[in-house]
């Protein structure tokens, strides 16, 4: 318990001073929503039916893939790792606390979008809000799993940022939130299915919850979990 409280306190301090967290989890997603929400609904009025889902997929993908990896590099690629070891804190706790903190921030951002989109742009509220937020939570968890792999696998801050952007751009462009995915060439449409954003968007816009619709996301999450375990084992040596 002492180790957990120490790790939680350290993570809280990191979150407070983290500009990356503020920018990627709140500022950029909400600014994108404010600008693109009006453009989408003016040019394509039919997007009001999926505006909340589209903006949420963008915000979660941004916050996870761009925001989390640098935070993990800060923990495992600096003196913070030695502080964990010196105080008897297991190294996996840094990953868990970072992911949990980001999950909470991204869900808060999703709630803000959910509440702001209808009055701001006339967006349609999902028929079942409870089920919608369950789908959002699943998608957020999977996205954070992928982000964790990037953060643990790459130790250099500059390389981490580059790889995060490389993962982020296809996730957004091929997910279907900008334009229907079926308009893409078959190869790009297939490539988009390798990323959680495509499946998350389909799950969040579905008329009813389907356990089968979560299978690809659960598969990606399982693969990310296994990779994180292997990478943490390597870091701990």
Report on this structure:
It is found in: Membrane. It comes from Ruminococcus turbiniformis. Keywords: Membrane, Transmembrane, Transmembrane helix. This protein has 237 residues and is mostly helical. It has one domain (2-235). It is 78% helix and 0% strand. It has 10 helices and no strands. The chain has helices spanning 2-17, 19-43, 51-76, 79-86, 91-121, 129-153, 157-173, 186-192, 196-205, 215-235. Helix 1 packs across helix 5, helix 2 packs antiparallel against helix 3 (51-76) and helix 3 packs antiparallel against helix 7. The relative contact order is 0.13.
List keywords for this structure.
237 residues; mainly alpha; 10 helices; 78% helix; 0% strand; transmembrane; transmembrane helix
Task: Lay out the secondary structure.
Layout: H1 2-17, H2 19-43, H3 51-76, H4 79-86, H5 91-121, H6 129-153, H7 157-173, H8 186-192, H9 196-205, H10 215-235
Brief rundown of the structure:
By secondary structure, the chain is an all-alpha fold. It has 10 helices and no strands. The two termini are 24 Å apart.
Radius of gyration equals 18 Å
**Tally of helical segments:** 10
Instruction: Tell me the series of helices and strands, N- to C-terminal.
Output: HHHHHHHHHH
Question: Averaged pLDDT, please?
Answer: 85
Count of spatially separate domains: 1
Taken from the alpha-carbon principal axes, the silhouette is globular
Quote the beta fraction.
under 5%
**Total strands:** 0
Pfam families: ABC2_membrane
Organism: Ruminococcus turbiniformis
Keywords: Membrane, Transmembrane, Transmembrane helix
Membrane topology: Multi-pass membrane protein
């Amino acid at each position: 318990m002492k180790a957990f409280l120490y790790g939680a306190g350290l993570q809280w301090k990191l979150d407070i001073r983290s500009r990356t967290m503020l920018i990627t989890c709140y500022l950029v997603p909400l600014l994108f929503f404010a600008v693109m929400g009006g453009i989408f609904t003016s040019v394509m009025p039919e997007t009001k039916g999926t505006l909340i889902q589209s903006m949420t997929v963008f915000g979660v993908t941004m916050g996870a893939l761009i925001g989390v990896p640098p935070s993990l590099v800060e923990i495992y690629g600096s003196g913070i790792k030695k502080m964990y070891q010196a105080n008897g804190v297991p190294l996996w706790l840094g990953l868990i606390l970072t992911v949990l903190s980001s999950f909470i921030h991204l869900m808060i951002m999703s709630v803000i979008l959910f509440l702001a989109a209808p009055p701001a742009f006339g967006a349609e509220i999902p028929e079942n809000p409870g089920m919608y937020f369950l789908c959002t939570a699943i998608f957020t968890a999977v996205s954070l799993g992928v982000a964790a792999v990037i953060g643990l696998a790459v130790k250099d801050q500059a390389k981490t940022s580059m790889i995060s952007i490389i993962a982020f751009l296809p996730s957004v462009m091929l997910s279907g939130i900008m334009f229907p995915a079926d308009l893409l060439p078959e190869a790009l449409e297939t490539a988009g299915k390798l990323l959680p954003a495509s499946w998350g968007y389909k799950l969040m816009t579905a008329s009813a919850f389907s356990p089968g619709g979560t299978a690809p996301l659960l598969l990606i999450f399982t693969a990310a979990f296994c990779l994180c375990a292997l990478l943490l084992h390597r870091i701990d040596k």
